[in-house]
Amino acid sequence: RRAPHSHAHRTRRDAQTPTMRRTAVASAPARAPASRAAPRTHAANRSAASTKFARARRATRAVRQPDASEYVDPSQFTELELSTAQMTAYASKRPRGQFASRFADDEPRKGADILVEALEREGVDCVFAYPGGASMEIHQSLTKSATGIRNVLCRHEQGEVFAAEGYAKATGKVGVCIATSGPGATNLVTGLADALLDSVPMVAITGQVPRPMIGTDAFQETPIVEITRQITKHNYLVMNVEEIPRIVREAFFLAASGRPGPVLIDIPKDVQQQLAVPYWEPKVSLNGYLSRLPAPPTSPQLQQVLDLIKDSKRPVVYAGGGCLDADLELVEFCRATGIPVTNTLMGLGTFPQSDDLSLSMLGMHGAVYANYAIDSADLLLAFGVRFDDRVTGKLAEFAKRAAIVHIDIDPAELGKNKKPFCSIFSNIKPALKTLNKLIALEKDMPDFSEWRAAIDVQRKKFPFPIPEQVGDVIAPQAAIELLCKMTEGKAIISTGVGQHQMWAAQHYKFDEPRNWLTSGGLGSMGFGLPAAIGAAAARPGELVVDIDGDGSFVMNIQELATLHAENLPVKCFILNNQYLGMVVQWEDRFYKANRGHTYLGSPNDDFQVSKEEAHIFPDFVTISQGFRVPAERVMRMSDLEGAIKRMIEADGPYLLDVMVPHVEHVLPMVPGGGTFADTITTGDGRSPEEKDMKTL
Q1: N or C, fewer C-beta in 10 Å, the chain?
Q2: Residue of 99, 219, 310, 313 with catalytic role
Q3: Cα(338)–Cα(420) distance, rounded to whole angstroms?
Q4: Are strands 109-110 and 275-276 parallel, antiparallel or unpaired?
Q5: How many of the other CB atoms lie within 10 Å of CB of 360?
Q6: What is the sign of the dihedral through the CA atoms of 49, 55, 60 and 62?
Q7: What distances in angstroms separate CA 198 from CA 157, 232, 342, 522, one per listed residue?
Q8: Helices and strands (H and E) in the chain: how many
Q9: Strand 358-361 to strand 341-343: parallel, antiparallel, or no bridges (unpaired)?
Q10: How many angstroms separate the CA atoms of 594 and 77, rounded?
Q11: 97, 134, 112, 149: which is closest to 276 by C-alpha?
C-alpha cells in the first residue's frame, strides 16, 4: 500500500512543481537577486552575457513607485521596471479591490464560500464545473454567488477543461474549471497537459477527500497533486482554510504572468466545510518567482537586433503564440521594415493573413513559400516560438543559412532546440515596442523588395492546393474556403485534431488574434466542441464555428447537450470522411495504404464505397437532434453554400454534417524529421504509389 500523501502539509512554495522549479532555475535573475544563488543551467549561462549589461543599466534606472490603489495585470509585470518588493505588493492586489461581500466582515463562513468569493474578487464571471461528492460544497456556494458567476455545466470533465482553455484562448483571461476528486480530477489531466504545452492561463480547482482520509485509498481518492506535477506550472494542496485567499491570488497570478500556464488547487472537503473569517489582504509568497521574471529589454540589446537586420539581405520573421498579445507591435515592426512574416500553428492571427507580408503558416503542413523563405533566409527573427519539431523537421537543416535572433519570455526555450546567434530573455511586447522606437529613428533602412519578390515566385508556384472539382463531390479544402468567404474570415474558429485542423489552418484566413482555437502542442482530439463552448461563453454575440472531423467530434460528442442546455449558438461544421483521416494519410504515404484500424464507419457498410446515405455511421444528424440541436447533412458541393447559410443564420446551435472523400491528403507535407527538400506536393489516397508523391 502506498505511503500517505506526500504533500499533505504543503501549501506554500515547497509544493511547487518541477516545471515551475525548472523555470525558476533557468531564468536569469533579471530582478532583484534572491538571497541565495540558484544553480545555473546551460540556458542561463548562454543568456548571462547578453543580460549582464542590461542588469547594470537597470540598476541606474528610476524604478516606478507603487500606487497602493493600483492593480497591475500580471501580464504587464514584464513590461514595467519593478523591484521584487514592488512586484510582491502589486501581485497581492486583486482585480476587484472594492468588493461588496454577501457576508459581514467578521462573519464566519465556509471554506467553499471563501473560495467562491476569492474567485469573485479575481473578476471571474464564468466557470466550467461538474459536481461530485468532494466538490458539491463549492457548487452550493456558486449558486449563491454575489456577482452571479455563471457555471457552464459541461457533460464531462474533459469537456470542461477544454472549454476553460477555449475561454482563455479566446480572451487572454484565466479560464477556470472545477471538478470533484478521483475520476473527476483525473479527467482533467489531458486538458492540463494541453494547456501547459500551449501556454494557456488556467486555474483548475479539484475537490479532495477529507484531510484525515488522505492516503488511505478512500473512495474517489487520487493524489492529483502528484499526478499533475509535470503538467502544471504550479499546484497546491490546501490544508488550512485560512490560506484560501492567498493561494487563489497566487494561482491566478502564476497562471497569467510570465509564460502563462495551468495551476491546480486541490481542496479537501473538510476544508471546504470549515468555518473561518477570511483575511483578504495577504501578501503573496512568490519572491523567487517574481525575482526571475524578465524586465523589459534595453535599447543596446535591441540595437544589436537592428544592426543584424540592416546587415541582412533575406530576413524572415517566425512568429508564434508568444505574440498573441503583441500583434499590434508585430504588425508595426513588419510594415516598418518590410520583412515578411510566417506564423506557427499557435501564432495564426498575430499578423493579418490578408497582408502581402504574410507568408501564412510554416512547418510540416505549412506553405511551401513560407518554408522556402526559412530555408533561404540569412536572418531568422524568432519571436515567441519554441522551434517545435513539427515546424523544424530536421533541426540541423532548419534555417541553416540564417543567423537566428530568438526573443522569448521563457529562458528555458532559448537555445533548447536551436542555438541562436542572439538570444534575448524578454516578453515580446516590450521588446518590439523598443525595437519599433529604434527603427523609427533609423534613417537608412534596407529595401527587401527583391527578397519579397523571390518569395512571391514560390507563392504563385505553390499555393495551398485545392483539388479540381470532380462532379458534385465536396473537397474539404474547398468547403473551408467557402466557409471563410461566407463568414468574411471573422468567425471564431475551433478545431479538433487531424486533417481538418490542418486544412482549417491553411484555408481559413485570420486577420486578428484569439479567433483561432486549436490544440497545438499536445494534439488532443475532442478539443474542438468544448473549446467552442468556452469561446461562446466568453464572447457572446460572436459567431463561433467548430470545424471538426468525425473522429475528433465523437470524442466529446456529449457536449451537444451543453449547447442546448446553456443555449450556446456554436455551429458544428463536421468534415465527415468516415476514417481517421490524418493517420490514413500516413498509411497511404508510408505503409503502402495498409489500414491499421483507421476505419470509423460501420463494419457492415462502407459509405465511401456505396455512397448511400443510409450507410453513414454514426448518424450525427440523428444524434444531434436527440440532443435538441438542429442539424442537417450535405453531400453535394452544389448544396453546400445554402447549407452554410442556414447554419450561420440559425439563432442557436447548429450541426452541419459535410460528407467528404477519405482519399484527400493535406498538402504540402514535410515528412517527420525531413527537410524543405523533402516536401511532398503531389499525390493522394487515390494513387498512393511513391511515384505519385513528388518532392521538391
Answers
A1: N
A2: 219
A3: 22
A4: antiparallel
A5: 22
A6: positive
A7: 19, 12, 18, 8
A8: 27, 20
A9: parallel
A10: 54
A11: 112
- The set of cell numbers assigned to 652 is 442557436
Type of residue numbered 643 = A
Say if pTM beats, i.e. exceeds, 0.85.
yes
Annotated active-site residue in 117, 157, 481, 664: 157
Distance CA 10, CA 117 (A): 23
The one-character DSSP state at 231 is G
252 Cβ neighbours under 8 A, 6+ residues apart: 74, 122, 174, 203, 263
Asked if 205 and 132 touch (Cβ cutoff 8 Å), the reply is no
What grid cell was written down for 290? 517574481
Residue 281, C-beta contacts closer than 8 angstroms, at least 6 positions apart: 92
Read off the pLDDT of residues 61-115 as tens digits, 9 standing for 90 and up.
333 454 656 788 998 899 988 888 889 999 999 998 789 999 999 999 999 999 9
582 included as an active-site residue: yes
Q: Which amino acid is at 482?
A: L
Cα–Cα distances in angstroms (integers) from residue 341 to residues 250, 513, 521, in the given order: 36, 15, 21
Residue 559 among the catalytic residues: no
Which one of the listed residues 136, 140, 213, 220 is annotated catalytic?
Answer: 220
CB 85 within 8 Å of CB 77: no
Helical (H) or strand (E) element with 493: strand 492-495
C-alpha cell at 529: 466542441
DSSP 5: P
How much helix, strand and coil, in percent to the nearest 5, is found in the chain? 40, 15, 45
User: Residue 237 to residues 59, 313, 502, 595, 658: CA-CA distances in angstroms?
Assistant: 38, 54, 39, 46, 46
What DSSP character marks residue 669? B
Contact in structure between 500 and 581 (CB atoms under 8 Å)? yes
Q: From CA 672, how far away is CA 590, in angstroms rounded? A: 11
- Catalytic annotation on 220? yes
Q: What is the SS3 assignment for 192-228?
A: HHHHHHCCCCEEEEEEECCHHHCCCCCCCCCCHHHHC
Q: How far apart are CA 261 and CA 265, in angstroms?
A: 13
User: What is the per-residue pLDDT across 520-575, written as a single tens digit (0 to 9) for each?
Assistant: 999 999 999 999 999 999 999 999 999 999 999 999 999 999 999 999 999 999 99
Q: Do 256 and 91 contact (CB within 8 A), yes or no?
A: no
